[in-house]
Amino acid sequence: MFSDLQRQLDEALRKPGPVSNFLYVCEEKSGFERSTIVYGGVFLLFLYLLLGYGANALVLLVGFIYPAYQSVKAIETESKEDDTQWLIYWVSFASLQLFEAITFSLTQFIPFYPILKCLFLLHCMAPIPQNGSTQVYNYVIRPLFLKHSPKIDAALDTAVEVAEQLVEESYRKFERQGNIRCGACGRLFDTARGLSCHRRIHRY
């Protein structure tokens, strides 16, 4: 299994692009294989997370910069496969941030939590078919979504309908009082109604 991951990582590190070009220069200057250079960089990162300051901020940068760059590249390509790959990553990333926000008082007591989080994010963005974000999505997020999405959609539809009714009642009230001197309320009412229609069309 490890040999397969090693092979997939080597193939990913040699794909044409700025990362591969940078690793090629490092490879030529140092005489080390690019996979060894990557492992060394990861080791130094973990050492800093263990001993340095601002570990949480650094982990967020690790989880954001490279995926954001690859996401923009994916948007600019015609293929939809890489779009799906990075969309799954961002859903997993957001889920982790939400989990941390809810359980902050607990995660701060986990030993070496920044290192564990960094390892998890690196696994999530790894250029292999079954990386961490794909597994989190397939085994956690997707089952929960399929189970609860009908109830969530129904609640959203109800909320939109209530908001539409409130806006319409307010609009009629101001209209009766003769206080409408511009089209702002009318545009707000049209927007609420359009949102409701859009949700119904999207669902069906």
What does this structure look like?
There is one protein chain. The chain has 204 residues and is mainly α. The protein is built from 9 helices and no strands. The chain folds into 2 domains: 2-129, no CATH class; 152-203. It has helices at residues 2-13, 18-30, 34-51, 55-75, 81-102, 104-107, 113-125, 132-177, 184-203. Helix 4 (55-75) runs antiparallel to helix 5, helix 4 (55-75) packs parallel to helix 7 and helix 8 packs antiparallel against helix 9. The two termini are 44 Å apart. GO terms for molecular function: zinc ion binding.
How are the SSEs ordered, and which strands pair?
Elements lengths: L1 H12 L4 H13 L3 H18 L3 H21 L5 H22 L1 H4 L5 H13 L6 H46 L6 H20 L1
Helix pairs in contact: 4-5, 4-7, 5-8, 8-9
Short description:
By secondary structure, this protein is mostly helical.
Tally of individual helices: 9
* H/E element order: HHHHHHHHH
State the secondary-structure class: mainly alpha
Number of strands: 0
Report the C-alpha radius of gyration, rounded.
24 Å
**Alpha carbon gap, first and last residue:** 44 Å
Which descriptor suits the 3D outline? Answer: elongated
Helix content percent band: over 70%
Report the average pLDDT across residues.
Answer: 80
Stretches with pLDDT under 50, minimum 5 residues: none
Estimate what percentage of residues fall within beta strands.
Answer: under 5%
